[in-house]
Amino acid sequence: MAAFLMPIAVGLVLVMIGISNIKGNINSIHWYHRQRVKEEDKAVFGKLMGIGTILCGAGVIAFGLLSLAAELTGQMIWMTIGSYLMVVCLVAGIGLFTYTTIKYNKGIF
Asked: Angle CA(95)–CA(57)–CA(55) in degrees, nearest 5?
């Protein structure tokens, strides 16, 4: 019954980290990905990385909630929808991470 709690908890942590990044605290981003970001670009870098983190967190939360719906109703379609939604959000979030890192860090490596 409590299998849905872990995704919701992980998603909430990701959303909180994303909000922190948007507010300008980019210390949660690995130092390697922050090292070549110009000082004037750090605010935009943090906002974009925060939005990506919130996207990932929202997808995981949605999966957890739809898993709960599947468990309560007995209809596994909710689990399928949750899985697809989570994948879409994770791909969008990781895509935004990659774009932001390439643009403001002048490459991934």
From this structure: 40
108 CA to centre of own chain: 18
**How confident is the model over 6-31, as pLDDT tens digits?**
999 999 999 999 999 999 898 888 88
What is the rounded CA–CA span in Å between residue 87 and residue 30? 23
Are 60 and 83 within 8 A, CB to CB?
A: no
Distance between CA atoms of 33 and 7, rounded to whole angstroms? 26
- Written as one string, the DSSP assignment of 33-85 is HHTT--GGGHHHHHHHHHHHHHHHHHHHHHHHHHHHHHHHH--THHHHHHHHH
